[in-house]
Write a structure and sequence with these properties.
This protein has 308 residues and is of the alpha+beta class. It is built from seven helices and 14 strands. α4 crosses α7 and α5 runs parallel beside α6.
């Protein structure tokens, strides 16, 4: 079987789950790739071609999706037993590798969180968003990146807001960093702990309340809490809203839970509102969205400008 054929199957698998295809060696090892539908998803994809060059597997680490492919099976044909065994072995291996990476990232996250200092409210991001710190901390953020020649370089960004991310058991498993300004090297102003977990992790602002809110990012949550006094949980991304909603519902079975959606009117599918609505339906919660394009931090600051 020629390399072009395996390349075509691999490319199709990548496209199906939003991973940018790139040629990799048939060495049975995972190779990093970027996400095609997320400019921030650098190295958040994984591509592997098996040693026998008869198939492989692709992962989208951010969405959790995976796609296997085999060149000896035509479209629509059932997967053979040997293919299932191959997939199962790769899934188990990947699960072990992924958990080890998550645990290593969690160890680094806890160490950084412990030495980070309380954030001050004159931080440029907080001033720009017009919100308080609400327990955020400050620390330098260390990051590795690939330069144009494919070599890894180290980057240190000072004066970063640090936000903890916990799992349902109350364990700190990852962090988010918010930079004081847009970083041209990473081409963004926020970053998650490299190779850290994301699904089902969250943080919150505020004491217990009979009504609780679920939002995406920190600035949105801070504005909502400051305006309502309700506890606000942060899912960090639209894709994580349902996972966090399930956890909150299990912990608070009788509470009113309201998803406060980002109104992403400038995107084709309005992911914030779509994901919030789906999550609210599943856990029997409510959903609200700001009447302008953007999130509730945008809306609160908009009202500050237009009110006399």
């Amino acid at each position: 079987m020629n390399n072009q054929t395996i390349e075509q199957y691999c490319r199709s698998a990548c496209e199906s789950i939003g991973v940018t295809y790139k040629a990799v060696l048939a060495d049975g090892q995972f190779h990093t790739a970027d996400l095609s539908n997320d400019s921030k998803g650098k190295n958040d994809g994984r591509i592997k071609i098996f040693l026998d060059q008869q198939g492989g597997i692709v992962f989208n680490n951010k969405s959790g999706e995976q796609q296997s492919f085999f060149i000896n099976r035509k479209a629509g044909e059932p997967i053979q037993a040997i293919d299932y065994e191959h997939i199962h072995r790769e899934q188990q291996r990947r699960k072990i590798e992924q958990q080890a990476a998550y645990d290593k990232a969690a160890h680094k996250a806890l160490a950084l969180w412990k030495i980070a200092k309380p954030a001050t409210e004159n931080h440029p991001y907080l001033v720009n968003k017009q919100v308080k710190a609400h327990g955020l901390r400050l620390a330098p953020w260390l990051r590795s990146f690939k330069d144009d020649d494919g070599n890894y370089q180290k980057l240190t960004i000072d004066n970063c807001l640090i936000l903890p991310l916990y799992n349902a058991e109350g364990e700190l498993r990852s962090l988010q960093a918010i930079f004081p300004e847009h970083n041209p090297t990473l081409d963004r102003n926020k970053d998650f702990m490299p190779r850290g977990a994301m699904a089902g992790l969250f943080w919150w602002i505020g004491a217990k309340s009979t009504t609780v809110l679920i939002a995406e990012g920190f600035a949105t949550a801070a504005s909502l809490y400051e305006q309502t006094g309700y506890r606000v949980y942060m899912a960090m991304t639209a894709n994580n809203l349902l996972a966090v909603g399930r956890i909150v519902r299990e912990k608070l079975p009788t509470h009113d839970i309201i998803f406060c959606a980002d109104n992403d009117t400038k995107t084709p599918v309005n992911a914030g509102l779509t994901k919030s609505t789906a999550a609210a339906l599943e856990i029997e919660g409510g959903v609200i969205a700001p009447p302008i394009s953007g999130d509730f931090n945008d809306y609160v600051n908009y009202l500050r400008e237009v009110r006399p």
